[in-house]
Amino acid sequence: MLSEDSLQTLKVHRLRHIGKLIRKCISEKPSKTTHMPTHTGEKPCCCKECGKRFSDASNLTTHMRTHSGEKPYCCLECGKRFSYSSTLTKHMQTHTGEKTCCCQKCGKRFSQTNHLRTHMRTHSGEKPYCCQECGKKFSDSSTLTKHMRTHTGEKPYCCQKCGKNIYYSSDLTTHIRTHTGERPYCCQECGKRFSDSRTLTKHIRTHTGEKPYCCQECGKTFSQSSSLTTHIRTHTGEKPYCCQECGKRFSDSSTLTKHMRTHSGEKPFCCQKCGKKFSRSSNLTTHMRTHTGEKP
Fold this sequence. Notes:
Elements: H1 4-26, H2 32-35, H3 37-40, E1 45-46, E2 53-54, H4 57-68, E3 73-74, E4 81-82, H5 85-96, E5 101-102, E6 109-110, H6 113-124, E7 129-130, E8 137-138, H7 141-152, E9 157-158, E10 165-166, H8 169-180, E11 185-186, E12 193-194, H9 197-208, E13 213-214, E14 221-222, H10 225-236, E15 241-242, E16 249-250, H11 253-264, E17 269-270, E18 277-278, H12 281-292
Antiparallel strand pairs: 1-2, 3-4, 5-6, 7-8, 9-10, 11-12, 13-14, 15-16, 17-18
Helix pairs in contact: 1-5
């Protein structure tokens, strides 16, 4: 009978072999016909769905999965499926728990060097990827790619349940849980459950007090990168969000959303005790104290 440590070692060893087999399958050298367009810039293969062009048929085949939702690569450990073999290889490291890349600034560890490289920019504030449409800068290329869809309006991911089109595959996965009610991510501190890992990560900081995002202008730290982005505008005076009704401008989208209710009269927050409605959640919280007798 193997000990628990020996079983874990065997498990890690087995998953490494699976990863090597996948890498071997995808590392075959392309033919001259496939390879030459990388030099000429020629993109003869066109997607019939969105018109995007590719230099070879294999890249087009891979791209088509963003439309079809096909996920042919399956994790033998947990059954989770993926569109790309490279994503499966990365996913398998979540089972091995192997994190060989360490941040010298804060000690946080990562399973991949590119994740560490991106993380390091949260310390340096470096944002090398720039949107050619609006000038907004990003710390990694994938976030820029996702951001570009806010300009193009492209929403390639569709929910089969309600037909809603969504910008990002991760958001589609999270959205589907609004139908199933699934909340697979649990806080070990308080037991609260979440439908996606990002929200859990943000929530955990309410327990740890961690604030990894720092303003280079005044040194103020934040638990979320979006809060830092909004805060920086208090220094620059930038107000990119504009009300289409009255032209008033705001530094963040949530304040614009609240403001829009002064025009629409919408009151989405309802008291379960008496049915009274409010335009802001904070007003509902204050109102609830008239029922509970709680004093702030």
